[in-house]
């Protein structure tokens, strides 16, 4: 990225000043090295988003931002409820893709002797990869109940425990879902995909806590050095992808109907207060419930695999965050509370201490922000900050972010060699696809530590703990 | 060199992949774009064209028709758990309302994880970098970015 186009406000804050047709500036949180790695297209896309009607304050890029489609990945933009727009491309294809992390109640010493068996057990028990199907087949009535109920539905079906729900955004169930506005195609795509991990950058990882940066918050989250955790990265599967496809197409026509000029078709959007805008919001909320139910079922499968080998294991959910959403939230804009639809595309909500949406256990310290790394690098737990509200509408980064295309990665690495090399470092990788592993090579991503350090230094969220992978199940 | 059948290629996108089909006619360019889509997932040469699926779609513009075509293939792959390697596409000229329609057959087989080694599932075709144009040699070039 050409940083001469930006005004530097601090070591970690850079502005793309608003010039017509931009209505607000673009604000990037990153250090200079991360900015240089970003494509110039990120700025182009930020400027396009900043030109949409009803946008407030600024369009933000998180430290892991990269060139997306329409909106940048790692982008945050909020629109006024009364005269703003909602965009399917601003949420993304994998609606409510996210990460959840569980404590196992075990330490590294408990895991080491059975690590190989555990990896094999998880790989056999958790469907992963292209074309894999789950054991649950949903008939239409059950599908609608799932789309209304989210993780709450899953718990009622016996997948997980009631106490899991308070550790999930929206308490496991997104209000305002409209399953009847989801196409038959989307529902068909999901019929056999409940409790499947997916492919690409989705994973299930067994991790150890290797460092704690903030003891007080780590205690509130229940993590200490040596603890073994399980993290799951997955989303709304085929249903979410099809909802995005269906509504992006509708919004291309809606934008034309409402006279919205688009610099890029992928910015296709509709006024929030329009039939098309409301329909998308209802369908998107149902897709969020699909993702929450899916991660809940995956949690149940992980618990079963652990129970078989380690009956002592007790997988307690720490928290579940979603990355690709547009949610109605109240934020302080120029000192006044405003109701806004906050689009986070590849960005994590990061509420600071005291926020009423947080469960009692975290109310005093802030929301856990779970940052997934790659199969060969660290992941991090951070916490939302009080200053994050003014900085980025309480948003933070979501992962390492790709630095290299899949093609470049494929030229540089071989899947089987990578699995062997990681094995020598004590990380067991299981995947149905060696090519998939090569495309997801750790070296194809940005340095997650640099991303997290930038989010910390910019005050978007603060570091709590560092996790290192022991076992990685890749789709 | 573009043959009678055309050719396909991928183009650079930092996180996702661009698919491009090139052919002497729009029909052939659409077929090649579909091959480029398959190549995101696996080597098309590993796929046996033993089962045909019929696809029809309609759109107000040819560029939107390309996205709809690729999205229909993604849908058929996901719900049938198949992968396709041979295509026969026929575009019909615009009707009185200006809408274009596409009639196609896609041949392939059920996904076999061992033989196909599928790398990634494609979530959807996007409007990013969407183009339908003729190059100076008169070949049709059709392209867009797909989300993986």
Structural account:
- The complex is a heterodimer of chains A (475) and B (148).
- Chain A has 475 residues and is an alpha+beta fold.
- Chain A has one domain: tRNA-splicing ligase RtcB (Alpha-Beta Complex), CATH 3.90.1860.
- In chain A, 34% of the residues lie in helices and 26% in strands.
- In chain A, β15 and β16 (379-384) form a beta hairpin.
- The model of chain A has no long low-confidence stretch (mean pLDDT 96).
- Chain B has a single domain (7-142), classed as Archease, Possible Chaperone, Chain: A, domain 1, CATH 3.55.10.10.
- By secondary structure, chain B is an alpha+beta fold.
- In chain B, α1 (26-41) packs parallel to α2.
- In chain B, strands 1, 2, 6, 7 and 8 form a 5-stranded antiparallel sheet that branches. Chain B has a 3-stranded antiparallel sheet with strand order 3-5-4, covered by helices on one side.
- Chain B is globular and about 45 Å long.
- The model of chain B has no long low-confidence stretch (mean pLDDT 93).
- Chain B is built from 3 helices and 8 strands, in the order ββαβαββαβββ.
- Chain A binds chain B through residues 39, 41, 66-70, 73, 89, 92-94, 129-133, 185, 188-189, 198-200, 238, 241-242, 244-245, 248-249, 252-253, 264-266, 268, 401-407, 432-436, 438-439, and chain B through 10, 12-17, 41-42, 60, 64, 67-68, 71, 74-75, 78-79, 81, 110-111, 113, 117-121, 123-128, 130, 145, 147-148.
What is the compact description of this entry?
The complex is a heterodimer of chains A (475) and B (148). Chain A is α+β, with helices and mostly antiparallel strands.
Task: List its traits.
heterodimer, A: alpha+beta, tRNA-splicing ligase RtcB, seven-stranded mixed beta sheet, 15 helices, 19 strands, globular, B: 148 residues, alpha+beta, Archease, Possible Chaperone, Chain: A, domain 1, three-stranded antiparallel beta sheet, Archease (chain B)
């Amino acid at each position: 990225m050409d940083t001469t186009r930006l005004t530097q406000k601090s070591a970690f804050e850079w502005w793309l000043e608003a010039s017509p047709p931009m209505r607000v500036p673009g604000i990037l949180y990153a250090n200079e090295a991360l900015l240089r790695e970003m494509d110039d297209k990120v700025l182009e896309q930020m400027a396009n988003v900043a030109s949409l009607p009803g946008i407030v304050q600024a369009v933000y890029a998180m430290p892991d931002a990269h060139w997306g489609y329409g909106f940048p990945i790692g982008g945050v933009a909020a629109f006024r409820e009364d005269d703003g727009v909602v965009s399917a491309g601003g949420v993304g294809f994998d609606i409510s893709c996210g990460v959840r992390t569980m404590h196992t109640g075990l330490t590294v010493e408990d895991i080491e002797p059975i690590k190989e068996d555990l990896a094999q057990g998880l790989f056999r028990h958790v469907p992963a990869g292209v074309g894999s199907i789950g054991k649950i087949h949903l008939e239409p009535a059950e599908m609608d109940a799932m789309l209304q109920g989210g993780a709450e539905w899953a718990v009622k079906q016996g997948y997980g425990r009631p106490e899991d729900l308070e550790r999930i955004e929206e308490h496991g169930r997104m209000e305002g879902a409209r399953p009847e506005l989801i196409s038959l195609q989307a529902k068909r795509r999901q019929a056999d995909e409940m409790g499947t991990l997916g492919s690409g950058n989705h994973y299930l990882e067994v991790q150890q806590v290797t460092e704690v940066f903030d003891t007080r918050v780590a205690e509130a989250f229940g993590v200490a050095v040596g603890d073994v955790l399980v993290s799951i990265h997955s989303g709304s599967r085929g249903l979410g992808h099809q909802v995005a496809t269906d509504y992006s197409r509708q919004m291309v026509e809606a934008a034309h109907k409402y006279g919205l000029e688009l610099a890029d078709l992928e910015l296709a959007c509709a006024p929030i207060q329009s039939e098309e805008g409301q329909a998308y919001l209802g369908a998107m909320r149902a897709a969020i419930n699909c993702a929450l139910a899916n991660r809940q079922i995956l949690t149940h499968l992980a618990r079963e695999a652990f129970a078989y080998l380690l009956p002592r294991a007790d997988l307690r959910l720490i928290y579940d965050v979603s990355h690709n959403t547009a949610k109605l939230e109240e934020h302080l804009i120029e000192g006044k509370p405003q109701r806004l639809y906050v689009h986070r595309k590849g960005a994590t909500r990061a509420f600071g201490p005291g926020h009423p949406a947080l469960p009692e256990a975290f109310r005093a310290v802030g929301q856990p922000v779970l940052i997934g790394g790659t199969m060969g690098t660290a992941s991090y737990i951070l916490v939302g900050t009080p200053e994050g509200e003014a900085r980025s509408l309480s948003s933070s980064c979501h992962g390492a972010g790709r630095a290299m295309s899949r093609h470049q990665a494929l030229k540089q690495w071989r899947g089987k060699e990578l699995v062997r090399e990681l094995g020598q470092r004590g990380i067991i990788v299981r995947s149905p696809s060696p090519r998939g592993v090569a495309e997801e090579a750790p070296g194809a991503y940005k340095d997650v530590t640099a991303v997290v350090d930038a989010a910390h230094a910019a005050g978007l969220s603060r570091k709590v703990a560092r996790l290192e992978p022991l076992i990685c199940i890749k789709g | 060199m573009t043959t009678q059948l055309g050719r396909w290629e991928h183009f650079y996108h930092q996180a996702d992949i661009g698919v491009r089909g090139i052919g002497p006619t729009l029909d052939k360019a659409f077929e090649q774009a579909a091959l480029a889509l398959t190549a995101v997932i696996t080597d098309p040469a590993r796929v046996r064209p033993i089962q045909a699926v019929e696809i029809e779609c309609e759109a107000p513009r040819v560029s939107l028709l390309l996205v709809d075509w690729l999205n229909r293939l993604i849908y058929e792959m996901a719900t049938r758990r198949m992968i396709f390697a041979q295509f026969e596409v026929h575009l019909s000229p615009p009707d009185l309302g200006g809408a274009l329609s596409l009639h196609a057959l896609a041949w392939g087989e059920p996904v076999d994880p061992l033989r196909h080694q599928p790398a990634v599932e494609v979530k959807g075709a996007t409007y990013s970098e969407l183009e339908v144009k003729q190059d100076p040699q008169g070949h049709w070039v059709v392209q867009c970015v797909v989300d993986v």
